[in-house]
Amino acid sequence: MVETAGRTIRKGELFIVVKDEDPAELIKQAAIQNLSPGVNFGIISYNDTPLREVLAGGITTLSTDFKLMGKPMARPIDTEVIHTIENPWQHNILNSL
After folding, report:
1. What is the pLDDT of residues 17-37, one digit of tens each?
2. pTM listed for this prediction
3. DSSP labels for 15-54?
4. Is the dihedral of CA 28, 34, 39, 40 positive or negative?
């Protein structure tokens, strides 16, 4: 988790976060400091969710296509063959940058 408690967010910083709680904690700390994501600092989160689309006007995400990923992943389970599968990522730029 991004540790923002007791710490000052500096203007120009970019945070790359993983957990759902991380952007919320950053936004709470930013409100204390009167800062805005996308204006004074940036947030990029992994994996798009409806919550990230509305939180603070939208959090920028790097997200894989889970539906596309599921199809080839089912094949090795059926055939018991292990191999590497590439899956494309999408960069969804919203207001947090």
Report:
1. 888 788 888 999 999 999 999
2. 0.71
3. EEE-STHHHHHHHHHHHHHT--BTTTBEEEEES--HHHHH
4. negative
